[in-house]
TrEMBL record:
<feature type="domain" description="HTH luxR-type">
    <location>
        <begin position="147"/>
        <end position="212"/>
    </location>
</feature>
<keyword id="KW-0238">DNA-binding</keyword>
<dbReference type="InterPro" id="IPR016032">
    <property type="entry name" value="Sig_transdc_resp-reg_C-effctor"/>
</dbReference>
<dbReference type="GO" id="GO:0003677">
    <property type="term" value="F:DNA binding"/>
</dbReference>
<dbReference type="Pfam" id="PF00072">
    <property type="entry name" value="Response_reg"/>
</dbReference>
<dbReference type="InterPro" id="IPR039420">
    <property type="entry name" value="WalR-like"/>
</dbReference>
<keyword id="KW-0804">Transcription</keyword>
<feature type="domain" description="Response regulatory">
    <location>
        <begin position="4"/>
        <end position="120"/>
    </location>
</feature>
<keyword id="KW-0805">Transcription regulation</keyword>
<dbReference type="InterPro" id="IPR000792">
    <property type="entry name" value="Tscrpt_reg_LuxR_C"/>
</dbReference>
<dbReference type="InterPro" id="IPR011006">
    <property type="entry name" value="CheY-like_superfamily"/>
</dbReference>
<feature type="modified residue" description="4-aspartylphosphate">
    <location>
        <position position="55"/>
    </location>
</feature>
<dbReference type="InterPro" id="IPR058245">
    <property type="entry name" value="NreC/VraR/RcsB-like_REC"/>
</dbReference>
<protein>
    <submittedName>
        <fullName>DNA-binding NarL/FixJ family response regulator</fullName>
    </submittedName>
</protein>
<dbReference type="Pfam" id="PF00196">
    <property type="entry name" value="GerE"/>
</dbReference>
<keyword id="KW-0597">Phosphoprotein</keyword>
<dbReference type="InterPro" id="IPR001789">
    <property type="entry name" value="Sig_transdc_resp-reg_receiver"/>
</dbReference>
Length: 218
């Protein structure tokens, strides 16, 4: 199955570079480009891509507003944020807006392609490096909720699973840690999506941090 991608960045050279990098990748097609957040929202509605690679800093409707508008529709399109982590102060807002993962613009091509495929498959970037750092940045920032997030209806076992998800573990790693089958671990994670109201694993990680089950230093 081909992953259909829209590139959203206000710098034409960045879009052109990404298009060239992606052009030879099997199973991934760039089907549109947007120079503003408003154009990205319009394209997402018109062509329903699997993934929008979204820059955060764009004139007018920025990447956060565009991400919120795209994900609020509840369709299949997922947003993968393009960021320069060291100086971007708005990454945590993109998590709130519904982004499913993050790319740093100077990442290696293989990592970019892998990220696109992971997000298109309905998962999210959690463990190595970039997303964990961004989530840690997110939870360190002041703002609501001040009290630990309530986990109504979550069982003790599901709380254990959520803690391990928050530490960046895959379903297989969770199964090994808790001495259960991978299918059982997957079922627990699926129930947590519903109970916590999470779109994907990135937002389960946020829930684990907000419930103070894990901390950025872990």
């Amino acid at each position: 199955m081909t992953v259909r991608v829209v590139l959203a960045d206000d710098q034409p050279l960045v879009r052109a570079g990404l298009r060239v990098l992606i052009a030879d990748a099997p199973g991934i097609d760039v089907i549109g480009e947007a120079g503003t957040g408003a154009e990205a929202v319009r394209l997402a509605r018109e062509v329903a891509p699997d993934v929008v690679l979204m820059d955060l800093r764009m004139p007018g409707t920025d990447g956060i507003q565009a991400t919120r508008a795209i994900t609020a529709r509840g369709g299949p399109t997922r947003v993968l944020v393009l960021t320069t982590f060291d100086d971007d102060e708005h990454v945590h807002d993109a998590l709130r807006a519904g982004a499913s993962g993050f790319l740093v613009k100077d990442m290696a091509l293989d990592d970019i392609l892998a990220a696109i495929r992971v997000v298109a498959a309905g998962d999210a970037l959690i463990a190595p490096g970039v997303t964990r750092r961004l989530i840690a940045e997110f939870v360190r920032r002041p703002g609501p909720p001040a009290r630990p997030r309530a986990l109504a209806g979550v069982t003790d076992r599901e709380r254990e699973v959520l803690t391990l998800v928050g530490r960046g573990m895959s379903n297989a790693e969770i199964a090994a840690e808790l001495v259960i089958s991978v299918a059982t671990a997957k079922a627990h994670v699926a129930r947590l999506f519903t109970k916590v109201g999470a779109r994907d694993r990135v937002h389960l990680v946020i829930a684990a941090y907000e419930a103070r089950l894990v901390h950025p230093s872990e």
